[in-house]
Amino acid sequence: MTEPILDQLAEKIEIADAVLIGAGSGLSSAAGYDHYHWSPALSKALAPFQEYYRFSSPFAGFYHCFSSYGAQWAYYSQYIRFMWETPIGQPYLDLKEIVGSKPAFILTTNVDMQVSRSFSKDQVCTFQGDFGFCQCCQPCQDQIWENHSLVQRLTQALDGVNLPEEMVPRCPDCGRVLIPWVRDDTFLEGTAWQEGVARYRTFLRHWLMEQTGKKLLLLELGVGEMTPSIIKLPFWQLTAQNENVFYACLNQKDSHAPEHLKGKSLYLQGDLAETLSRLRQKLCKTGSVSG
Ligand SMILES: [Zn+2]
To answer: Which of 27, 50, 141, 164 has its CA 20 to 30 A from that of 170?
Structure first.
């Protein structure tokens, strides 16, 4: 990581009137919560399941075809409870300090609650859902339910990698099993999801159209190549089409730097946890954040 680029980014943050953050899985990996590989924290929390099923990753367990709903919810309850109760990762805490009191919005494809537990709901759009909620598997209705107390209750009833079938949570209306509110083929894009997208659009409209001449910084953090249509491509388009938008892309790996965004973008490759920590220190020195 080169110092001048970090200085340049710190300056862009300081002069920005508002910040739009696009957070991908790399940000959670930097926080120690990699759901696509077995990180130490998740290996420990899900040890009996990892040993029994040999899942290739925690997220592979989510998509596994279990032999019963009891077996499925045994895994879900332990996995979800971990996400509710594990500490907020340092990169998320640093990010909060970095944006400070500036108007900010976070669009994320992460479903592991780190964003929704770090920022207030009116600042967040969890585009792919959020493990902190359940939906009917059908779904028969436009309702999602917060599940913290549910998973606390279920994990207390676990017998190894199994949960008694009668404890499997079911839809109060149709009786079908509940599932986490996370993107798959029956994902509920109902009122809660639409409200999240509307919050994002309102933020954009405000800073791009209602507030003329204001500087909007797009800060893309750990976004991979898997679903570019949600964060990366819209961010490129917003940058290209609006003269007061600047785009910063922070990633562990090398990122594409489109030619047409030259002069309106910067790219910082390297460890995201370290970058955010150093950025926080820089802004702290200049008095932009409290430290
Ligand atoms: Zn139902």
So the answer is: 50
